[in-house]
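Chapter review: from sequence to fold.
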Amino acid sequence: MKPIVRLIAAGLFATSTLASFAGAAHAQASAGNPPSRSMTGISAERLARLSQAMQRYVDQGRIAGAVVQIQQDGRDVYSMAFGWRDKEARDPMREDTIFRIASQTKALTSVAVMMLLEEGKLLLNDPVGKHLPEWLKTNVAVAKPDGGYDIVPAKRAITIRDLLTHSAGISYGAGPAEKAWREAGLFGWYFADRSEPVSTFVARMASLPMAAQPGEKYVYGYNTDILGVLVEKLSGQTLAAFLDERLFRPLGMKDTFFYAPREKANRLAVVYSAEAGGIRRAADAAGWQGGGFFGQGHYLDGPRTAFSGGAGLLSTASDYSRFLEMLRRGGELGGRRYLGRKTVELMVSNHLGDIAYNAGMGFGLGFSVRTDVGKAGEPGSEGEFGWGGAYHSVYWVDPREKLTVVYMTQLLPGGDIDDHGKLRALIYQALN
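The token string follows.
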């Protein structure tokens, strides 16, 4: 099918709803004839290459559908919905489709932590155990050369900054002590099906052997779920209530929540899985799937008790773009301040120091940070920050170019698709 298009360029607004189900012909970047150079600094003509590339992924059966939204200096310059929300039902993707954003939740929870810092309720170097006593002392599993592992005390306490930067040594259960984590019901990031609050699981994991010593390695894992519990402890609210009161409602993020309201069920995108020769509809949530992930998930019919600060939210491209624009503007949007300017500067700085990470990249307080464009080896800018989610969504903010980019799709696993790289290349080639 053709995409649903909305593109703003040179002060012109063009909307074209192209809902023909008969073929997969490519749409132009807008219904009108925008000039090749826009006042916003992006070429509408060159952005048509992005539209064509995304439509090819749909036509080739690599993805069912997607939404791409780009803002520059706070203005929408590109918003397009491609393909299908539900391919089998022939229900087209729309700009207001709701997606499982998985680890894109981490940025929102990290902002919540920094709000509490600004209120004097915590410090980044606080031991986590100061606020969650079960974390006062932790242990680490050290693999033995001939198999098995030894358990040794952590060399120091895990701090809040360790959690924000994923340098606490806490994985998603992988590591020398994986068997113990699995037996404790802690492996993989999924909580939407749990009938107990996340705090129950966080308390349980404190007694398990960690995968590395605090401050010595980058280890991606449950860190932000622990931070979500910390927010609940210090605020006296559930994470859902805190985020709704402090971020979602004031920012106008009306379609962001941990569980979809029943009346919005028909806007929740279907999850697909890459396989040889195309994609297949992921299974409904009836048990563990490959890798420990659920297919369609319990985000609609789950028990609504587990609010995962690391991977639990649903959102739209438009909602998430508003959140990113607030960060790009240094913590302010629409005349309301959410974070102080210097707090945002701290969040988007590299905190890893000598800890090994991806070439040309560092990690801040909640997301990756680009430190060297050449070493990273792809278009972008130094100071750019972003992340993505397990369902193959991705976002980034480029302060130098005043850009925010949100790409939403639902593909788990993603296989060998190269859409993220092409999305980035085709956006940057369109800058004037």
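Two observations follow directly from the output. The chain has eleven helices and 18 strands. Residues 8-39, 287-291 have pLDDT under 50 and may be disordered.
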